Amino acid sequence: MFGSIYHRHVDRPVIEAPGYEDEVFEAVSALPERCQLGVIMITEELSSNDPDADVERCGLLADQYEVFAMVIPSQPRIRPTCRNHRLAVSIDLKSGSPPVAIIHGIVPRRGASEASRRLVTRQLHLVNPTWE
């Protein structure tokens, strides 16, 4: 009856926040190896799919960036070593088709949406952006 609001993409660009690649790398590298593998898995998934409905959607920033705090799966799934962290991701809705996915870094589980919003705002140099 109704189509999904989530889209499949072919070779969507997935990038680290421009100018903050080292910061993103260091944040991910500080995680246990199982969590690092989970971040790689999310990155690969984002290249072909929008974030799932079960991730924490944080809102729309500056009428352009859809912000998410994504659960980081533990790989292999022996134990949930990543439960206290989330991966901050934004989708640049105005970047074209398919829209670019931007990896911003790691935020704590508690207050993940607010931390993701602040991280995206800082890394994209947004000044007093609208927040929906």
Topology:
Blueprint: E1 14-16, H1 21-29, H2 33-46, E2 56-61, E3 65-71, E4 85-92, E5 100-108, H3 112-123
Parallel strand pairs: 1-5
Antiparallel strand pairs: 2-3, 3-4, 4-5
What does this structure look like?
The structure is a single chain. The protein has one domain (14-123). Helices cover 27% and strands 25% of the residues. It contains three helices and five strands; from the N terminus they run E-H-H-E-E-E-E-H. A five-stranded mixed β-sheet has the order 1-5-4-3-2, sandwiched between helices. A hairpin with a 7-residue loop joins strand 4 and strand 5 (100-108). The two termini are 28 Å apart. The model is unreliable at 1-6 (pLDDT under 50).
